[in-house]
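debug: dumping io for the single-chain case to check the tokenizer round-trip. Nothing else runs in this session.
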Amino acid sequence: MRRTWQRLAGAAILAVVVWQVGSAPVVDGLRSLDVAVLLLGLAIGAVTTVACAWRWHLVARELGVEIAVPAAVAACYRAQLLNTVLPGGVLGDVHRGVVHGRSTGETGRALRAVGWERAAGQAVQLVVAVLVVGLVPSPVRSVLPWVVAALAAVVVVVVLTVRSARGERWWSRLARTARDDVRLSLLVRRSWPGVLVASLVALAGYVATYVVAARAVGVEAPVWALLPLVLVVLVAAGLPLNLAGWGPREGMAAWAFAVAGLGAATGVATAVAYGALVLVANLPGAVVLASGRSAPTPVGTTTAGRVRA
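debug: decoded output
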């Protein structure tokens, strides 16, 4: 039921945006893409996919369900393609977690590895967005207090939940498992530098793809002026209210580009062009699907992995 409401919310946001700006920006965004732009997006997408796969490899290794980087790259391509064509924007990642879990015999831990890998990337993206929007003069700075307040609320809730995680109630066990996962997979010395670097590289790839889309649409604003807008849009795109990636991204792009004096229609066209670029960049995932390669090859289960539940 919750997923249905999330899909409806994404569809509603997209419908309101199209109602306000019309369908012309959607057509313009698609028409702006030529072969050279698509190839550039494909190349950038390869870098971001490898970065995400490496991050997954690092997190999974610490949780005892290690996966080889080449297999992780193939699985990430498949998952990203599914994310862009299926409702919700996360079903591809759930699929790669389940498939990897079946290959290792540790489905729960494999799913958690995927979840923490994604959470790490979102956390780095959010922190970078707050820093950039706070430091670089931009019309979108007005959203910063709301973002900081929401982030602070989440941190407080998480800290209080972990501190009160006693007893054998399900939420206490869940909180302890999450605390242990974070300590083992994200905060250990041999893991966190790589996770941070991989997240920054992936974020740079997303930003570069968005800038390419903006240039293709005809936006001539300097990169430093676009950067806060792009980061705000990417944060909105990560909200679990999208319809295969569509919805909040276009809505936030319309608002951000409008307040920046670039026009809501331009923002929507750029967001549409970005979505198309991402879809093309993920098309190698179709090769993985067609090849029938469903199970990533596990490197092995560590001793720590065997001990943990």
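debug: round-trip ok. The chain is about 75% helix and 0% strand.
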